[in-house]
Design a protein that fits this description.
heterodimer, A: 270 residues, alpha+beta, 3-methyladenine DNA Glycosylase II, Chain A, domain 3, Alpha-Beta Plaits, 3 domains, 12% strand, elongated, B: 470 residues, alpha/beta, OB fold (Dihydrolipoamide Acetyltransferase, E2P), 6-stranded mixed beta sheet, globular
C-alpha cells in the first residue's frame, strides 16, 4: 500500500485546519462585540418563561431593555429583584406583590346554563354564540382561554370555572387580556377580602342566573364599620384603602359572593 | 382511430365557432368557477331537495321582535316606546353613524316592549316588540318612483337608504354604502349573487323562479344609480329552472346577462364570484370596488326594486325553514318573526330538536333557543336532531393538506391553526388570516375534524379588537 497520498492528505488538511483555526481565533479577539455582562445577569434573574406580558418579545429582549434603561427594572413581576439589584448596582424596589383572581364563583350547577356548548374549546367562541353558554353575561365561561395563555401553569379549570393558584401566579396579566368576559383581575395579593361577582343586572335577574351572584342587597354595606363597601352598578365593591380585612362582610353575605381569602385554605398554605 | 380524429375535429370546430356563453352551457365545458372549494352534501342535492319545489308562502305572525342591530355598523336608536301604535313601514329605529340603517315596523299594532333581547350574536341587543292587530295598515306617505328605467338615477341610492336595506345574503352590509362609490373609484360590472351555494337554503332559488322581474328591476336600479353598463346575474348550474326564469325576465333589458356557474361551495363568496365571472382577483385586504366590481345578493336586489318602484321599506324576506320540521317550506316572513312561530307554521318539529341553526349548514350560527327573531340577513333556519348536531372531538393534524386544497382563498389552514392555537397573532397575520372568508371549507375537508374555521374566526376577532384598541 502506498502511504504517501494518505499522509499528504492528512498533512494538507491539518495545515489548512491550523491556518483557519488561527484566523478564527484572531477574528474572535479583534472583531469581538462588546456585550454588557449585566444583560446576561439580568436575563438570568427574569422569569424565564418568555410569556411576553411585559410587552417585549421575550426575556432576553426585556433584559436588554432594562439594562439600556428603556424598561423599568421591576417590569417583570416574576423576576428575582435582589439579583437584578445586584447586577445593576442599584436598589430595585420590589413592586407590590400582585396576583390574578377570578371574579366569579359560577361553578357548574351554581350558575344557570343557557345552552349546552360542545363546539370549539374556546371561551371567545362560546361568548360570541347567543350570549354565551351561561345565563350570566359576566360569568367565567370555563373553557380555558386563560389556562392556555398562562406560561407558569398557575391556572386550572375546576368544575366549570378557572381557578388560579396564588402561590404560582406572578401576575403577568396574560390571562386578564385573554379573558373575553374580563372576569380576571390583577389585584394586590394583600387584598384578601373580595366580592367575587360583577353581575350588573338587578337582583332578581342576577339571582335567577346564578346562585352565587351579588344581588346588591347592601347587607355588607351596613355590616362594614369602616365604610369601605358601596353598591354601585348593581354589585358591591370594597375599597381596599379603607378595608381592614376584618371579614365581617363575608360572614353576612346572603349569597356567599364575598370571600375572605385570609381564612380560606388556599392562602393558609403560604 | 378515424372516429376519434373526426370527433376531435368536430369538437375543435364547435369550440371555435360557438359563442362563448352558449359553448359553456351546451357543451358542458368547465363553467365559471374558482380554485379550491368543496361539495358539501353533493349526493343529496346540497340538502335542498325538501324545499326546492316548495313555493313561497306568506306568513304573518301574531307578534314580532325587531332587533335594532340587524346590519353591520352601530345599532339603531329606537324611536317608539311601549304602548305606541305603529303602522307597517313606520320608522321605529333611527340610524346611528355612517354605517347605520333605519329600522321599520314590519306589522301594524301595539308596541308591547322596548327592551334588550337575545339574538344570535354575542349578547342581548335592544329590540322593539310589536303585537299584531292584523289591520295590515301601511303608514302614510309611501310613494315610489314607478319605474326603474325612468327614475332619476340620483334618487335611487337615497331611496335604498331610506328603505333600510342591508345585504340580505348574510353579511348585512348596508346597501347604500356599497352603492356609493368611494372617491376616485370606478365600477364597470355589477354582479347579482344568485349562486346560493350554501347547503339547505332555497330562498333565493324560489325568489328567482317566482319573482324574477323584481330581481332584474333591482339590478337595473343599481346599474342606473352608478351608470354601470354591465349587470351579470350569476347562478349555479344546479338551478336550471332559475336560470331559465331569469333568462326570460332579463330578455330585452339593457346590459343584463346571465352567467352559469359550476355548483361548488363557496361559489357565492364575493371574491370567488368575482373571479369566476370576470376573472379579476380582489387584492388582499381590499374591497371588490378595487377591481371595478360590486356584488349584491338577488334578495337585496328584489328589496331595492320594491324600495325604488313602490317606495316600500324592507319589512319582509324569504327564509327557508328546513331540517327536522314536519313541512319544510320557503316562507315570506316579516322581519322580526320569532323562529318558534316559523317552525310552528311549518308543522312543528318532526324529531326532537338538538340544534337550531340560523343560516345554512356551512356558515350558519347556532341559536340559544327558538325565541330568536329573524333578521334582515337570515336566509334560513335549519333544525338538527341529536345525531346530526353531535360534534366530534378534534384529532391531531396528519398533514394531509386537504384543507390547503379546499381553501378557496389559497391559504394554508393547517399552518394557520397552529399559529392561532398558540395565540401568535403576528404570525397568523403574516400568513394572511385576515384574508380568510370563514367559509368553513377547511373544517369540512379535514379528516381529523379539527376546529379550523372557529380558530380563525377567534383570531380575526382578536386582531380586529387589537386594531381598535390602538
Amino acid at each position: 500500500m502506498d502511504w504517501i497520498p494518505v499522509v499528504l492528505a492528512l498533512g494538507v488538511l491539518g495545515v489548512v485546519g491550523l491556518i483557519f483555526g488561527i484566523l478564527l481565533e484572531v477574528a474572535d479577539k479583534k472583531l469581538a462585540v462588546e456585550v454588557d455582562p449585566r444583560i446576561s445577569k439580568v436575563g438570568e434573574a427574569l422569569g424565564g418563561a418568555n410569556c411576553g406580558a411585559c410587552g417585549y418579545a421575550g426575556c432576553a429582549a426585556l433584559a436588554e431593555a432594562i439594562v439600556s434603561g428603556e424598561a423599568k427594572p421591576n417590569a417583570c413581576p416574576a423576576a428575582n429583584m435582589a439579583a437584578i439589584s445586584e447586577a445593576l448596582g442599584i436598589t430595585v424596589e420590589e413592586g407590590e406583590k400582585m396576583v390574578a383572581r377570578v371574579i366569579c364563583q359560577g361553578h357548574n350547577g351554581v350558575a344557570k346554563e343557557r345552552y349546552k356548548y360542545d363546539g370549539y374549546t374556546s371561551c371567545a367562541t362560546a361568548a360570541s354564540m347567543a350570549g354565551g353558554p351561561k345565563e350570566c353575561a359576566y360569568a367565567c365561561i370555563g373553557l380555558g382561554d386563560c389556562m392556555r395563555v398562562c406560561s407558569f401553569g398557575a391556572i386550572s379549570m375546576n368544575n366549570g370555572i378557572a381557578s388560579i393558584d396564588p402561590n404560582v401566579c406572578v401576575a403577568c396579566g396574560n390571562c386578564e387580556k385573554a379573558c373575553p368576559r374580563s372576569a380576571i383581575r390583577i389585584i394586590p395579593a394583600e387584598t384578601k377580602v373580595l366580592v367575587l361577582c360583577r353581575n350588573k343586572d338587578i337582583g332578581r335577574v342576577a339571582r335567577a342566573a346564578c346562585m352565587k351572584a351579588c344581588i346588591g342587597c347592601g347587607r355588607c354595606v351596613k355590616e362594614c364599620k369602616y365604610g369601605a363597601i358601596a353598591v354601585e352598578d348593581g354589585y358591591a365593591r370594597i375599597d381596599p384603602e379603607k378595608c381592614t380585612r376584618c371579614g365581617a362582610c363575608a360572614k353576612v353575605c346572603p349569597c356567599g359572593c364575598i370571600i375572605d381569602y385570609s381564612v380560606t385554605a388556599e392562602d393558609k398554605a403560604e | 382511430m378515424v372516429g376519434v380524429t373526426m370527433f376531435a375535429c368536430i369538437f375543435a370546430f364547435l369550440l371555435h365557432h360557438i359563442p362563448h356563453h352558449i359553448e359553456r352551457q351546451v357543451l358542458c365545458l368547465p363553467k365559471y368557477s374558482f380554485k379550491g372549494g368543496v361539495h358539501p352534501l353533493h349526493s343529496q342535492h346540497e340538502g335542498k331537495l325538501p324545499t326546492r319545489n316548495a313555493p313561497i308562502r306568506d306568513f304573518v305572525s301574531d307578534s314580532v321582535v325587531i332587533p335594532m342591530s340587524m346590519h353591520l355598523g352601530a345599532p339603531s336608536k329606537p324611536c317608539v316606546s311601549k304602548g305606541d301604535h305603529v303602522k307597517i313601514g313606520q320608522l321605529i329605529g333611527e340610524p346611528v353613524g355612517g354605517l347605520g340603517l333605519p329600522v321599520h315596523a314590519s306589522i301594524s299594532g301595539e308596541v308591547t316592549a322596548v327592551e334588550p333581547r337575545l339574538i344570535t350574536g354575542a349578547g342581548p341587543v335592544m329590540c322593539v316588540c310589536i303585537q299584531n292587530d292584523f289591520a295590515d295598515e301601511w303608514v302614510d306617505g309611501i310613494q315610489g318612483y314607478g319605474n326603474v328605467e325612468t327614475v332619476d338615477p340620483a334618487l335611487i341610492v337615497p331611496a335604498i337608504k331610506a328603505a333600510g336595506i342591508c345585504g340580505m345574503g348574510g353579511a348585512s352590509f348596508p346597501a347604500h354604502v356599497k352603492l356609493t362609490l368611494p372617491e376616485g373609484k370606478t365600477c364597470d360590472t355589477i354582479i347579482l349573487n344568485g349562486a346560493e351555494c350554501e347547503t339547505f337554503l332555497t330562498a333565493d332559488y324560489r325568489l328567482m323562479i317566482e319573482e324574477p322581474r323584481r330581481v332584474v328591476d333591482g339590478l337595473r336600479a343599481e346599474m342606473r344609480a352608478l351608470g354601470v353598463k354591465r349587470g351579470v346575474i350569476a347562478i349555479e348550474d344546479n338551478k336550471m329552472e332559475a336560470i331559465e326564469s331569469m333568462r326570460k325576465a332579463a330578455a330585452g333589458r339593457e346590459g343584463v346577462e346571465i352567467a352559469v356557474l359550476r355548483t361548488k361551495y363557496p361559489q357565492g363568496g364575493e371574491k370567488q364570484l368575482i373571479h369566476a365571472v370576470t376573472g379579476r382577483q380582489v387584492p388582499s385586504g381590499k374591497l371588490p370596488i378595487e377591481v371595478h366590481t360590486i356584488v349584491t345578493n338577488v334578495a337585496t336586489a328584489a328589496a331595492i326594486a320594491d324600495a325604488v318602484i313602490d317606495g316600500k321599506p324592507l319589512i319582509s324576506r324569504i327564509t327557508t325553514v328546513t331540517g327536522k320540521v314536519v313541512n319544510p317550506s320557503n316562507l315570506r316572513v316579516r322581519i322580526g318573526t320569532v323562529v318558534a312561530d316559523m317552525i310552528g307554521e311549518c308543522g312543528g318539529y318532526s324529531e326532537e330538536a338538538a340544534k337550531i341553526v340560523m343560516g345554512g349548514g356551512m356558515t350558519g350560527v347556532c341559536t340559544a333557543n327558538a325565541d330568536i327573531p329573524i333578521a334582515k340577513a337570515n336566509g334560513g333556519i335549519v333544525v338538527y336532531n341529536e345525531k346530526d348536531a353531535k360534534s366530534v372531538d378534534e384529532e391531531p393534524c396528519i398533514r394531509c393538506a386537504r384543507c390547503v386544497q379546499a381553501c378557496p382563498m389559497g391559504l394554508d389552514p393547517y399552518k394557520l391553526k397552529h399559529l392561532c392555537d398558540a395565540g401568535n397573532l403576528e404570525g397568523a397575520k403574516a400568513n394572511h388570516v385576515m384574508d380568510c372568508i370563514l367559509c368553513g371549507c377547511c373544517s369540512y375537508a379535514c379528516p381529523s375534524r379539527r376546529w379550523l374555521t372557529a380558530a380563525f374566526k377567534n383570531t380575526k376577532d382578536a386582531i380586529a379588537a387589537a386594531a381598535r384598541r390602538k
